Structure formats: C-alpha cells, structure tokens
C-alpha cells in the first residue's frame, strides 16, 4: 500500500478525509480516503503516494495533526513475533534516522500506549542490527513510524523533519500554568508554537509590540500576549482577572469586539469570540482591509455538519475580503475543540 497516513482529532475523520481528497484532486493525484469516525486517523491510498507526499506539505493541512508517507499495512500479526513481519516489510526501504512507535489519539487506541513503549524498546535494536536504523538519531534521514491501531494491526510509515510534526502523535505537550486565567490560554500558546515558525516567533513577538484581544474575558489570550511582553488592549464587556491587569501591560475596554476599532494600527489582533464563523471571518478580513493590524490569530467555531465545506468557505471569504495578499495558516490544534485556529500575516 502507498499513500498517506494522517492523524486527526477523534471525530474529525470525515473532515480530514474530505480535505485530503479535495487537495489531492486539485494537485492532480488520484486516490481514495479510508476513514472511520472516532479512529483518530485517515488513510489516503494512492498509487502516487511518494509524489503526493512531496506535493502536499503538512503545514498546509488543516485537520491533520501529523502527515506520514505510507510504507505498509500489516494485519493479523502474531503477538509473539511482531518484529519479523516489520523487518520483512522494510526490505529495500533504506535507512532511518529515528524510530517512533505510536498509536492514534482515540479512545480505542489509547490502551495501546504501554504496548507502543515496550515494543519500541524491543524493535529499536532489531532495526539497528538489520541495518534499517542508525545507531544515533540523525535528523537528516527519514523518521520511521510504527503505528499500532490494534495489537495485531499496524501501519509502517515515514516522515521527514521539515515536512511533519516534530511531536509524537502530532501533539505538543503544553502545561497549563497555575496563573493562567483559563484553559483557552493553551490555544494561543499552541497557535504561536504550531502556526508560526521559529523565525516568525522571533520577529513578530517582540517586547513593546501592540495588540488587541477581542472578546478577552477572563483574559487567557491577553495573559499569553503579556508573557511575550506585548502591550494589550483587551476588549470585552466582561471582567478580566486582576493579576492580568496588574501586569501594567493591559488596558481593559468594556466594549463589543465586533464593533470596536483601534485609533491607530496595531501589530497584532487576536480573537476567540463565540460567533458564527462566517461573521468572524468577515470581521477579521475588515481588520486587514482597514489596516488596523499587521498580524492576527483568530478562531473559527465550526458547525456540526459540513465542517470541511464551512472551513473552506470561511477561509476563502477571509482571503477575498482582506484586501491584501496574506500568508494564511490554519489548523485544528490539539487544544481546539469544534473549531480551527487561523494565523494571518502579510505575504
């Protein structure tokens, strides 16, 4: 089997399958998606799997936490000897610089975590002895992924460092600090980590920059911005936590984030308001068309049905009304729920 294996949030397999199918078709690749709700992964089978992997960057995908190139699918493996069929399937596959043994982030697959850990310890020396794995980790070579979906059913896949998530399961492990005003702070922290690259974080999150947080209460996203030493106008009719105001970097305006506008251009605008996604997309586009901000991170709350269609429509609406060329990255983050997070910056 060739094609792609991609992880996603449990329950969003149909959205990822629709996205992979549409993007592959637009690129001229034939194939079909295989997905079952709540599995936490999607297989996109294609005879052109290696070429499709190169043509479809992980960074461009919205509902995929991780994108891997399929090598093989092994079923009905004898639990007494899982290593031999893996070595047989890898014959002629070349060398790998690292090994990750994983499982999808789903209710049915989480019990496999212990198997994944113990099997990695057994498989690693066998791979090295057979010449498939380097003695020391080498990021210049592809990474080998062994993905258990059942004890006797696994996928073999590969990834390269520059075109895949750097975190196992595609999940960055962030800790909610005790003084965070809300769990939503993790969404903005993850957005900065996942949607911005290292150069962008260094250039665009400098002390003294200015920002607006629309729908700020109780202050989770404002708190994240102040941790980067940005000066923040927090717009919400609700209260902010006192320790956020005590930073000396925050001005709290009791106003409606959908109607307030800044008196002068700001470096950043962030928004996590609960509203219809098209209305949010239009308002975010206005911030760029009016020149009120240079960069933005905002969330789009998705409907229960046709979520891929709504995602595509909202992003097209935003790009069409922004009035300037923008670099846009969107992702359903690990800390998102029924939503996606969008980062927009001048192209």
TrEMBL record:
Gene3D superfamilies, per the entry: 3.30.2300.20, 3.30.70.2810, Vaccinia Virus protein VP39
Keywords (A to Z) from UniProt: Cytoplasm, Methyltransferase, rRNA processing, S-adenosyl-L-methionine, Transferase
Domain Ribosomal RNA methyltransferase FtsJ residue range list: 182-274
Protein name: Ribosomal RNA large subunit methyltransferase M
Gene name for this UniProt entry: rlmM
Localization in the cell: Cytoplasm
InterPro entries: RlmM_FDX, RlmM_THUMP-like, RNA_MeTrfase_FtsJ_dom, rRNA_MeTrfase_M, SAM-dependent_MTases_sf
Chain's role: Catalyzes the 2'-O-methylation at nucleotide C2498 in 23S rRNA.
Domain RlmM ferredoxin-like: 1-68
BP-aspect Gene Ontology terms: methylation
Reaction it catalyzes: cytidine(2498) in 23S rRNA + S-adenosyl-L-methionine = 2'-O-methylcytidine(2498) in 23S rRNA + S-adenosyl-L-homocysteine + H(+)
Binding, S-adenosyl-L-methionine: 184, 217-220, 236, 256, 272
């Amino acid at each position: 089997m060739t094609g792609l294996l991609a992880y996603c949030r449990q329950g969003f397999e149909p959205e990822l399958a629709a996205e992979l199918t549409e993007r592959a078709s637009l690129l001229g690749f034939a194939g079909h998606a295989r997905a079952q709700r709540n599995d936490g992964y999607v297989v996109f089978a294609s005879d052109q799997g290696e070429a499709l992997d190169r043509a479809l960057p992980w960074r461009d995908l919205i509902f995929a936490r991780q994108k891997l190139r399929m090598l093989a699918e092994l079923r009905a493996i004898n639990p007494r000897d899982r290593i031999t069929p893996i070595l047989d399937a890898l014959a002629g596959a070349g060398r790998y610089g690292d090994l990750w043994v994983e499982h999808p982030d789903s209710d049915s697959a989480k019990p496999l975590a212990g198997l994944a850990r113990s099997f990695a310890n057994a498989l690693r020396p066998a791979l090295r002895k057979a010449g498939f794995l380097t003695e020391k980790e080498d990021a210049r070579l592809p990474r080998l992924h062994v993905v258990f979906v059942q004890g006797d059913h696994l996928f073999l896949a590969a990834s390269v460092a520059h075109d895949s998530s750097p975190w196992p399961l595609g999940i960055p492990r962030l800790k909610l600090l005790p003084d965070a005003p809300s769990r939503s702070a993790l969404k903005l922290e993850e957005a900065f980590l996942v949607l911005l690259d290292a150069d962008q974080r260094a250039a665009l999150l400098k002390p003294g920059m200015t920002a607006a947080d629309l729908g700020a209460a109780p202050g989770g996203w404002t708190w994240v911005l102040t941790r980067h030493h940005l000066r923040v106008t927090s717009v919400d009719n609700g209260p902010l936590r006192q320790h956020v105001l005590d930073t000396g970097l925050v001005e709290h305006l009791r106003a409606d984030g959908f109607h307030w506008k800044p008196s002068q251009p700001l470096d950043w605008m962030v928004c996590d308001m609960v509203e219809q996604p098209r209305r949010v997309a239009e308002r975010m586009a206005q911030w760029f068309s009016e020149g009120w901000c240079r960069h933005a991170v905002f969330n789009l709350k998705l409907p229960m049905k046709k979520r891929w269609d709504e995602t595509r429509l909202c992003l097209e609406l935003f790009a069409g009304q922004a009035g300037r060329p923008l670099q846009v990255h969107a992702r359903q983050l690990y800390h998102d729920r029924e939503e996606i997070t969008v980062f927009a910056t001048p192209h």
